[in-house]
Amino acid sequence: MTESEKRLREQRIRLTETERRYRSACKLRTTTSRELAEMLCELERLKAEFLPGVAAQSTSTAAH
After folding, report:
1. What span, in angstroms and rounded, lies between the C-alpha atoms of 49 and 46?
2. CA distances from 3 to 7, 8, 10, 24 (A)
3. Which of the residues 31, 32, 34, 38 could staple to 25 if both were Cys, CB 3.0 to 4.6 A apart?
C-alpha cells in the first residue's frame, strides 16, 4: 500500500467515524443545536478534504 493509499484510507475512516458520531448525536435529546452545528462543520470539512483526494486518486489510477 502506497503512502497516498494509506492517507486516503485514514481519511475515509475519519470521515465514516465522524458521520457515525453525528448521526448518533442527532438522536440524543441532550445534544445542543450548537454542538450539532460544530459536528456538521467538522463533517463538511472532512468531506472537503476527502473528496479532492478521491478525485486525485482515481485520476492517477486512470493515468496508469
Report:
1. 5
2. 6, 9, 11, 32
3. 31
